[in-house]
């Protein structure tokens, strides 16, 4: 989470504190001040005050090695099991911080697949996609589009034109009949990976997520191009599928 995004909440300090507590609740081994700083992107001075406050409230403890831990978890009172938001947070946190991808969460709308959440890895090369971005049902076709279109079905408007990226970022048009056939070939529990990078040097893999047998959205991994990237295989999809099985 970008530090400045906390400012969009009515009480930014409260949002930061709850987010830090949630980070610690998903890590049994705890985390140091430096680790929490990298994960949250909150300045260390502010982070220290938040942790001190949480300690005073008895929600967080700091051991002799200066590792912060908590025995508390934020869950729905009516359900002691992990809520969907908890599972989504844990999955995105793992995919971004442990595997090094930018994790993205999209929900279906009549306009397209709307990015609602994004979580960046602990490295400089990251995808700077903004929350609120819309992958329209007409135009560019990527992994998020394909999975979303397959699962959203007839609710998604028909597109008049479709294109994707080929080798070296070249745009290639897709006949609509061919696109429809390719999407229908995907299973209802769909997943797909783009091998080619777009003009911004980004490619994605995506998987559908269902809650109570209802399509909830698409979990995606965004990968930046590097000189060592395999241009023929997108290896992020198997990792995304495994994470889906582990966290949902």
TrEMBL record:
UniProt domain HTH iclR-type: residue ranges: 15-63
Organism: Vibrio splendidus 12E03
SUPFAM superfamilies found in the cross-reference section: Winged helix' DNA-binding domain
One of the GO BP terms on file: regulation of DNA-templated transcription
Record GO terms (molecular function): DNA binding
Pfam families in UniProt: HTH_IclR
Gene3D superfamilies: Winged helix-like DNA-binding domain superfamily/Winged helix DNA-binding domain (1.10.10.10)
Protein's recorded name: HTH iclR-type domain-containing protein
């Amino acid at each position: 989470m970008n530090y400045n995004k906390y400012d969009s909440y009515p009480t930014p300090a409260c949002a930061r504190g709850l987010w830090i507590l949630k980070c610690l609740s998903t890590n049994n081994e705890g985390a140091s001040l430096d680790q929490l700083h990298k994960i949250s992107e909150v300045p260390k001075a502010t982070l220290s005050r938040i942790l001190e406050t949480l300690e005073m409230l008895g929600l967080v403890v700091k051991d002799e090695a200066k590792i912060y831990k908590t025995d508390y978890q934020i869950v729905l009172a009516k359900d002691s099991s992990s809520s969907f938001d908890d599972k989504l947070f844990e999955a995105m946190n793992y995919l971004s911080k442990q595997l090094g991808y930018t994790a993205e969460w999209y929900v279906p709308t009549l306009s397209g697949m709307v990015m609602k959440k994004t979580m960046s890895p602990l490295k400089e090369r990251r995808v700077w996609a903004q929350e609120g971005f819309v992958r329209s049902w007409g135009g560019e076709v990527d992994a998020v589009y394909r999975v979303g279109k397959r699962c959203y079905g007839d609710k998604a408007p028909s597109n008049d034109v479709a294109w994707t990226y080929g080798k070296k970022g070249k745009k290639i048009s897709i006949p609509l009949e061919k696109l429809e056939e390719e999407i229908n070939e995907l299973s209802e529990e769909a997943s797909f990976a783009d091998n080619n990078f777009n003009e911004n040097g980004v490619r994605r893999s995506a998987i559908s997520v269902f809650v109570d047998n209802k399509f909830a959205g698409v979990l995606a991994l965004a990968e930046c191009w590097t000189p060592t990237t395999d241009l023929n295989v997108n290896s992020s999809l198997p990792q995304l599928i495994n994470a889906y099985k582990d966290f949902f």
